[in-house]
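Design review, sub-item: ligand-bound model
Attendees: FS, YL, KQ
YL presented the inputs for the adenosine-5'-triphosphate complex:
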Amino acid sequence: MTDQPVLLVDGLTAGYDGIAVIHGIELTVGHGEVVALLGANGAGKTTTLLAISGLVPKLDGTIEVLDEATHEHRRVTVANVWRLARRGVAHVPEDRGLFFDLTAAENLRLGKPRKGGAVPMDQILTWFPALGPVLDRKAGLLSGGEQQMLALARAVIGRPRLLLVDEMSLGLAPIIVEQLLPVLRSIATETGAGILVVEQHVPLVLGIADRAYLLRQGHVTFAGTAAELQARPDLIEAGYLGA
Ligand code: ATP
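KQ shared the predicted structure:
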């Protein structure tokens, strides 16, 4: 364990076809921290996560992930997705990225690290008990909530140090989101993983997050604790409604 952030994003500018849609993003995620990335549709939240994962090329700035493989707590510059995965970064995309023709158990197996050290299944089922009865079912036949749990479980089973979660609640009933967000909190606290989560249910995510960033038109307009942002509904409103 170290005081250095697991993720350090400095002056990140990224976009599509050479045109920037996020500009000079400064962002950190610490060990065991849940950090919410908020903002209206099109603010640049998904692009930020994709750029951190190397799936959208950055145009400027640096993205550094703490390298604990050597136990030297050395920060390294991310070069590509493959190296990122080896450095303990897992990304749960908006579409969940499941293999629908494989069973839930087979999807989970794909998330296990080759060299061992996976989170034991009983621990996974403590976080996601609803997966127990459906492990032999094809992922494509699971409910939306079960699919989201499976996507999170598959990301977590490899013990990531940094977990990026995009729009977990997409298509889910609010009651499922209310159940899943505290699980993210538990995963961060119990495993020490840093979690960067994009979420539209602002009050719910601020209830479990340590810190938050608000993006507006690709710029960070607020960075602070979740409690500070909860106390500033005017800022949230401006971020979402452009007031
Ligand atoms: P949402 O909450 O709707 O998912 P977001 O905050 O995640 O929005 P992004 O998806 O990052 O926002 O989009 C930021 C900007 O980049 C938007 O203007 C969007 O139209 C644009 N954009 C996103 N994906 C592409 C793409 N593949 N090619 C070109 N422009 C894109």
